[in-house]
Structures are given as structure tokens and as C-alpha cells.
Amino acid sequence: MTNSRHDHAPGATPSDTMQGISAQELLSLRADMLRFAQLQLRDHAAAEDMVQESIEAALRKSSTFSGQSTLKTWVFAILRNRIVDHLRQASRTVNLSSLVDDDEDWQERMEAMFDERGHWRDGPRPAAWPDPETSLQSRQFWAVFEACLGHLPPATGRVFMMREFLGFESDEICRQLSITTSNCHVILHRARMKLRACMDTGWGRPGGASC
Amino acid sequence: MLSCKEVARLCSEEFERPLGLGERTALRVHLMMCKGCTNYRIQLGTLRRAMQAYAQGKAGPDDDPTPKSEP
């Protein structure tokens, strides 16, 4: 609850800062921003545009940066808003046929995780992961996390990230895609299941052979 | 009696809509007896937090010097 401001880097000179934000510092975030936008949009050119616009917007609005959050958090909020606006334009929504393809691919593997009574088979049965608080501080965790998100089928991944990264309500996602609520929930369910299985293999039990 | 497959679906649905009383009860009973589904549910929670942290640019140990606790 302190009001201390530390948005001025100690050695910063007026020439490379705008209202306390260093353009250099912003550019150093560019790679992370680009990876985030790329995961969400699966379109490199569009991701480049969003990131570029966000950096420009951040510089324009630099006087509103309070220093209460980190610069990165603040700039990511700008970037998320840009992406939300972009996705809300009807012409940019996921096409439905790719959602169906995603589904077919995944259905079989999901079924195989359970026996005929619907109980976990031994291999895929979830075992405890290391402590979450420690995990979120681990570079390894985030590397696997990014890779696993990248491996989600494109349309499924996009719906899931609209929900989880951008905070769209599932109702709005369904409306945009003209699918039923229950269909939408099934897509999200499969995305979570697949992401979890991927994290489990790549990080949760490294070395543990999971079929 | 819910199967693990049904429980996995409910664990995701929880994020999307309030579960009905019957669903909540059946879920709780199943979780008391099933370690696999309990782990599954905890892990979905971890992944959701990870998604939110990532979207806020908080991924990685060196990126965010602010305390972990939310205000």
C-alpha cells in the first residue's frame, strides 16, 4: 500500500525517457510481447502489428503509467486490449471447420485416457505436480508452458486463449463463433485437458514415461 | 456415481458456469475418494493462474519484482 514511485531508472537521462518510460526498456519487452501475441493470434504479421501499435500507444500514454505495476504488466494490458479489439471484429473470428478438425484429432486421444467405465487409466491418471508457487517462478515451467500452448490445435487454442488470456466470457465466444454454449464448454474442456496432459509430460513428471 | 471422465468435464465447467447443487455434491463425493481427479482439479487451477500470470507479462522468475501476493 505504499505510494512510492520507482518508474525512473536511476541512471536514465531525459533523452531516452518519455514521462519516466524509457523507450529502450519498452523495446526490451518486445520479444515477450510478440511471443504472447503470436500464441493468441497464430498470425505473425498481425502479431507484429499489435505489438508495434501497443509500444507506440504506451509511449503516447506514458504519462498515465503510475509505476504501481511493473512496466511490463502495464504494457501487456495495453497489448491485451489491442488484441481484444482485433478479435471482436467479426471478420477475424475462427472458422468453424477448423474447430471440427481440431475436435476429431483430439477425441480419440482423450477417450484413451479413460477405461471403459470412464475411470483414469494408470498411465494418464494425474499425479501431484510440484508446488505451484515454486513452479510459477521456474523458467523451465514457463518454457514448457509456452511450448504446450503452441501445440494446442489452432482453433481450440485460440478459443481457449480468448477465454483465459483475454478474459472473454464464454458466452461472448459462443456468440462470435455461432456455436452453442455446451459446444463452447466442450472446446474449453478439451483445451484444458490437452494443456494439462502436455504440461504433465513435459514438466510435471519429467522422466516419467506417460504413454 | 460420476466417472472420472465426467468429473474432468465438471472441473472445467466450474470455470464457465455455477454448478448445480447436485453436481457440486456429486463432485465433492467423487473428489473425496479419487486422488487422480483431485490432482486434476488442482492442476487446472494452477494452469488457470499460469494463464493469467502469463497474460499479464508475469512469466518467469526475473521478470516481475513485485510481491506475489495480490492486493
Describe the structure.
The complex is a heterodimer of chains A (211) and B (71). By secondary structure, chain A is mainly α. Chain A contains ten helices and two strands. Chain A has a two-stranded antiparallel ribbon. In chain A, a hairpin with a 2-residue loop joins strand 1 (17-18) and strand 2 (21-22). In chain A, helix 2 (30-41) crosses helix 3, helix 2 (30-41) runs parallel beside helix 4 and helix 3 crosses helix 4 (71-88). The longest helix of chain A is centred in the last third of the chain and has 24 residues, at 181-204. Residues 1-16 and 207-211 of chain A have low confidence and may be disordered. Chain B is elongated, with a radius of gyration of 15 Å. Chain B is built from three helices and no strands. Chain B has 71 residues and is mostly helical. Chain B has helices spanning 4-13, 21-33, 35-55. Chain B has one domain. The relative contact order of chain B is 0.12. The chains are: A mainly alpha (211), B mainly alpha (71). Chains A and B meet through helix 2, helix 4, helix 6, helix 7 and helix 10 of A and helix 1 and helix 3 of B.
